[in-house]
Amino acid sequence: MPQPQRSYHDIKIGEALGPEEMFLSKDQVRAYARTTGMWVPRFTDDEGARKEGLPGMITPGNMSLALLSKLVTDWIGASDAQLVRVGTTYRQPVLPEHTIVLQGYITNTNDAERTAEMDIWIENEDAEKLVIGTATVQFAKS
Amino acid sequence: MVDYDPNLIGRVFEVTDPVPVTAQMVAEFCQATGDSGPLYTDEEAAKHGPYGTIVAPPSFAVTFRNGRQFFEYIPRFGRQGFDAGKDVEFAAPIRPGDTITLSSYVKEIYEKTGRTGSMVFVVVRSTLKNQDDEVVAHVDHRFMNRP
Amino acid sequence: MSTILDLHSHSEASEDSRAPLEAYLNWLKLRRTERPVDGIVLTEHRQFDKNADYRALEDKFSILVLKASEVETDYGHMLVFGVTDEMTRRFDFANVHLPAQVVIDEIAHMGGVVIPCHPGRPNVGLFEHYSKKPSLENVAAVEVYNGGSRKGEDERSLQLAERFGYGEIGGSDSHLVSLIGLCATRFEGDVRTIEDLVTELKGGAYGPVDFRPRRKPVQHAVAVEVK
């Protein structure tokens, strides 16, 4: 699929990112934990996670941040722009073996800086926001 | 109100040894996050892209971690809790072949109550630099403790 | 003439919010059809900025902006409307263990009103405290619709508000721009100032309104293949 290509002037406040639905499997969470050196029970093993008082193995916060960052970089696509900031707050554990929805909206633009601000979040199947955050995309100034 | 040594704030407590970034690390990170963006996975496309080579996705920056003694350096308030969130500023791309160091300090400590009761937050700022001493990212980690 | 106000919101002044006030008001202007809100109340965490002046933004967007505070007590979080210097001298709003009954009674005496927010939350909401401690006196209302509620929490708040005969309000509790106005309160009277709001909350006719969109069923998604 060709990548989107946007100019700063194409952006409208209120424009949506996603929603993108994905099934987050335990295998994928373990792959993330393995490759990033986070191979600890809470991210890899249900029984081990329960011993820590968790309902089962959970997704690392860094992985949630990575998925939300990808939502933004997919939106950027081939545009002459970069993700320059992302901020996340982890409200509830993101449990694997569930479908999650990644979503966002453009909430503000700055003509002088040529930046776009966006709200981004991860929802579960009950529309509860598990991770919320914001991101800033910088478009080329020339 | 929480009790801690105010001299902790702003004082760099750790600079990590350089960590080399390999093409395999970047490829595995992309696989694990389901990211097939051509700048991160396609050498030919990346060559013609803004960076001239394959780069890691921006969020690769948060995978660099502090040393094993990290939690001995930062104040604890009762039971150590969880990663509460991060704020990351991306300054420059990370490429295979780079080596990355982290320099960290306690930025802020504050108390509040929330869904799980009383919490004390310790915010640690880490600055990532590459082998050219170029800042690639600033990462603010918010750690939640339960007194 | 009725007034609809989002009674619970956080701007960048609250440490866990990332929402500039102007962006909130612009969003409400854009979403006017789905969220017909006449104004918002900024209820910043554990603080009150008496000098903040939002009249220019109110005029620009024709949306009322009032100021209040969200404080933390031994019975959970509470919204304080009608904050005065006398109140901020009497109570340290940064204290996360304020004595709820004292706060409710003394602030009422000083001309304000205190309303428990998200009372249906497990572990920390007002009604959880009621299961372990005597219930509070002189509670005018509680927040039964909160934009950050999880499954079942608003329902619990509603049941218990009815049981205790409390008035009911709604607020978005937004910390993100796009979530402003999702829940609000409709007042039968005209509310143009914080004094009007306090009067209405104490004795007027009002009720919660819910502008949260109905969620479409989530489709079955495909897992990412990993080696």
Task: Describe, in short, the structure shown.
The complex is a heterotrimer of chains A (142), B (147) and C (227). Chain B is α+β, with helices and mostly antiparallel strands. Chain B is built from 4 helices and 6 strands; from the N terminus they run ββααααββββ.
How would you describe this structure to a colleague?
The complex is a heterotrimer of chains A (142), B (147) and C (227). Chain A has four helices and five strands. Chain A is of the alpha+beta class and 142 residues long. Chain A has a domain at 12-25 and 59-139: Thiol Ester Dehydrase, Chain A (Roll), CATH 3.10.129. In chain A, a hairpin with a 4-residue loop joins strand 3 (98-110) and strand 4 (115-123). Chain A is elongated, with a radius of gyration of 17 Å. Chain B is an alpha+beta fold and 147 residues long. Chain B has a domain at 6-20 and 65-146: Thiol Ester Dehydrase, Chain A. In chain B, 16% of the residues lie in helices and 40% in strands. Chain B contains four helices and six strands; from the N terminus they run ββααααββββ. In chain B, strands 1, 2, 3, 4, 5 and 6 form a six-stranded antiparallel β-sheet that branches. In chain B, strand 4 and strand 5 form a beta hairpin. Chain C is of the alpha/beta class and 227 residues long. Chain C has a single domain (3-210), classed as TIM Barrel, CATH 3.20.20. Chain C is 26% helix and 24% strand. Chain C has helices at residues 21-30, 55-61, 85-90, 100-109, 126-130, 153-164, 194-203; strands spanning 3-9, 39-45, 64-73, 76-81, 113-116, 141-146, 167-171, 183-187, 206-210. A seven-stranded mixed β-sheet of chain C has the order 5-4-3-2-1-8-9, with helices on both faces. A two-stranded parallel ribbon of chain C has the order 6-7. In chain C, strand 6, helix 6 and strand 7 form a beta-alpha-beta unit. Chain C is globular and about 60 Å long. Chains in contact: A-B, A-C, B-C. Chain A binds chain B through residues 3, 22, 28, 31-32, 34-37, 60-63, 65-67, 69-70, 73-74, 80, 82-90, 133, and chain B through 25, 28-29, 31-35, 37-38, 50, 57-60, 62-63, 65, 82-91, 142. Strand 2 (81-90) of chain A pairs antiparallel with strand 3 (79-90) of chain B, so a sheet runs across the interface.
